[in-house]
Amino acid sequence: MEIVVFWFRRDLRLIDNTALSQALSSGYPVLPVFIFDQNILNELANDDPRFNFIYQNLKSIHQKLSKNGSSLLCKHGDPIEVFQSLLKPYKIKKVFFNKDYEPYAIKRDEKLKKLLLQNGVTAQSYKDQVIFEESEIVKTDGKPYTIFTPYKKKWFHRFAQNKLRIENTIDFKNFIQFEVPFPELIDLGFEPSTIKVKDFDLSQIDTYEQTRNYPWTDETSYLGTHLRFGTVSIRAIIDQLKPYHQTFLSELIWREFFMQILFHFPKNVDHNFKSKFDGLKWRNDEKEFEKWKQGKTGYPLVDAGMRQLNQTGFMHNRVRMIAASFLIKHLLIDWRWGEAYFAEKLLDFELSSNNGNWQWVAGTGCDAAPYFRIFNPIQQAVKFDKEGIYTKKWIPELGQSNYPPPIVDHRMARERALKAYKMNT
Ligand code: FAD
Q1: In what order do the strands lie in the sheet containing 91-98?
Q2: How much distance in Å is there from the Cα of 357 to the middle of ligand 1?
């Protein structure tokens, strides 16, 4: 029997999944596959909460398929080798998957396409995780935008010309009817995590513009992790928005902006977008880095953010900016150190957004904050957490003798940072 394969990757849902819908209407029975990619898993702690989230979502997909006489075939290993092994027992006509724009994924998918081609199998990949991808939004000369505002303008212009298409149903009878067991977490080398991913919540979206900068309100959407792993479709989210939700939509466009930046400038992964800052003399003091990580800098808003991150895998956007700025400017620690720590801890870690935002704060990125904008963490706390609700929540010992004094003096650190940056301008 000839079949087609649908490969789940960062699109862990059955509804409104572009490549899956295409596979299901291909006329061939669909074998749904997920590969626990050894190359990625090797980097994770045994109790990584993101792995747990992926695992739970796959299990739920498997259960839905099982109720309809099918299964999710889970494999473990290197994706290319896994596909090599699938080519033997199955007569595969086509492999369907949604595109992933990260440098590792692009290389992996190129390798897979080559392997499939050698075996007479077609690879069909689709845009799914964004509204506009790759070079769909570019300047009139075909070059990518590196400034957000004109990118956003063009994005809106194109968006107005298109109608969102959302597939709300799924035809289960087009999956291959078969039964395989779902793997146990422990057999994959993982254990349960105490950190859980919150459901996303759009119920406060009408007041998003007024509350989004105040961490104590805790009223942002928590969509990040769900968009990262595709447990919800970006089209379904945008379809719910009203014209007065522009500020929220703008944030979603920042996400796509940074994705296209990384796609066009993959060197950004470990290089400054603005190479004039390559010679910047970082201090890179390991003891201070440790204090920053633990939330023991003596600056309450920075420390509260880092503790929220360590305990929950989440940090409010405003506090991410302040904590990142403190590390880069006050401590003169290379933004790549902070970026790597966020990548390890954030549930919503997204390479393009993390890199783009760290470089934005560092002033080394495209359309970045000017290097001389140095957040005063005390004033920021007064402005955005006036009553100290957020800081007290995360620092129970605040105001007591066991809370540490500031590890650097704000004025001195500010001058030091300006001097270091000026030498590269
Ligand atoms: P909401 O405020 O409800 O926003 C809705 C969605 O819009 C977010 O889920 C996200 O998809 C998008 N969005 C919002 N702000 C931004 C932004 N500045 N850049 C890109 N997309 C945005 N976001 C990530 O998704 N992954 C990261 O790894 C990440 N790292 C960051 C690192 C730093 C130093 C900073 C300053 C910001 C980072 N952000 C990152 C952006 C932002 O902080 C998070 O998207 C947001 O806090 C997630 O919470 P939420 O889903 O409740 O956001």
Answers
A1: 73-77, 30-37, 2-8, 91-98, 122-126
A2: 9
Written as six digits, the tokens of 105 are 């994924």
Phi, psi of 32 (to 5 degrees): -85, 130
Amino acid occupying residue 368: A
Nearest CA to ligand 1 atom 3: 221
Query: How remote is the CA of residue 317 from the centroid of ligand 1, in Å?
Result: 6
**Pocket mutation for ligand 1, best pick of 235, 348, 359, 390 (most atoms within 8 Å of C-beta):** 348
Residue of 148, 229, 252, 255 best suited for mutating to test ligand 1, as the one with most atoms within 8 Å of CB: 255
Ligand 1 neighbours by CB, cut-off 6 Å: 212, 220-224, 227, 251-252, 254-255, 258, 317, 320-321, 324, 342, 346, 348-350, 353-354, 357-358, 361
Cα 232 to Cα 56: distance, rounded to the nearest angstrom: 14
Helix (H, G, I), strand (E, B) or coil at 36: strand
274-308 tens-digit pLDDT: 999 999 999 999 999 999 999 999 999 999 999 99
Q: Grade residue 369 by pLDDT with cuts at 50, 70 and 90.
A: confident
For the stretch 147-165, pLDDT in tens is 999 999 999 999 999 899 9
Here the tokens at position 160 are 């107005």
Q: At 178, which helix (H) or strand (E)?
A: none
CA distance readout (Å), 364 to 30, 106, 399, 420: 46, 25, 36, 13
Ligand 1, atom 8, residue with closest C-alpha: 224
**Proportion of the chain above pLDDT 90, given as a percent:** 97
Assigned token pair, 214: 């105040």
**pLDDT tens-digit readout, 386-411:** 999 999 999 999 999 999 999 999 99
Neighbours of 363 (CB within 10 A): 25
